[in-house]
Amino acid sequence: MPDISSQILGIQRQQEEELTKTVGRNLGINYIDLIHYQIPADVLQVFSEEEAKKYRVIAYSRVGNTVNYATINVMSEDQKIFVNSRAIEKKLIFKKNICSQTSFNYCLAMYQKIKTDKAAKVEKARIDKLKDWANIVKTLDDITSQIAKVSTTELVDLVLAGAINLNASDVHIESTTLGSRLRYRIDGVLQDVAELKKEQYKALLNRIKNTAKLKLDLSNMPQDGRFE
């Protein structure tokens, strides 16, 4: 049996939806309950998260160039101007609907889920790439030969995969006059791996900084960061 607090919340939610429905009926605006509504990511992103919060709009369905959106602020002039501008910009037809604050908040949370899902896909792709490199680089010579062939975007994955395969405890990227020197510490001894060109060094450094959430423009003092 549900506890008293759950029953009260249920009643309050029902009252909120009924009130929203009544407001919509009085204004001649269609009412929509979006709780548990599955909004496709591409439809939700017709409006960015920042736009959704600012103008109180949620795109929830689309057929062709017609987009249904819900709002909790049906009388906003700023919202009207924004939606009309987006319609012209994207050549879309927008149909306004009213929803409750609870529905609106539920949909706002979907933006974070999209970010989380996207980050998970990126992480999976990175791990898969590391596994691919781990099957290729088995020795220091393998790493040295591959560094000359890979793109700058693949360089970090190659360096990390090589370090993991060779059980390196440290990876050293030391600046030199012509670029930088890549070295691994293996069994307590630093071993040269390869010389990196200036453009490789810069790309490698920037990607490591970005992944570790370090400041890209700070180069005259040490920074602490980490990534997994």
3D structure, described in words:
Residues 153-227 form the Bacterial type II secretion system protein E domain. This is Type IV pilus assembly protein PilB. There is one protein chain. The protein is of the alpha/beta class. It folds into two domains: 4-115, Type II secretion system, protein E, N-terminal domain (GMP Synthetase, Chain A, domain 3, 2-Layer Sandwich), CATH 3.30.300; 136-211, Beta-Lactamase, CATH 3.30.450.90. It is 52% helix and 19% strand. It contains eight helices and seven strands. The protein has helices at residues 4-27, 41-44, 49-55, 77-90, 101-134, 140-147, 152-165, 198-211, and strands spanning 30-31, 57-63, 66-71, 93-98, 170-175, 179-186, 189-197. A four-stranded mixed β-sheet has the order 1-4-3-2. Strands 5-6-7 form a three-stranded antiparallel β-sheet. Strand 2 and strand 3 form a beta hairpin. The chain is elongated. The relative contact order is 0.08. The model has no long low-confidence stretch (mean pLDDT 87).
Which CATH class of the largest domain?
A: Alpha Beta
Oligomeric description of these chains: single chain
What count of structural domains?
2
Mean pLDDT equals: 87
Distance between the termini: 45 Å
Shape: elongated
**How do the strands of the widest beta sheet line up side by side?**
1-4-3-2
Q: Write the CATH architecture name of the largest domain.
A: 2-Layer Sandwich
Order of helices and strands: HEHHEEHEHHHEEEH
The CATH superfamily label of the largest domain reads Type II secretion system, protein E, N-terminal domain
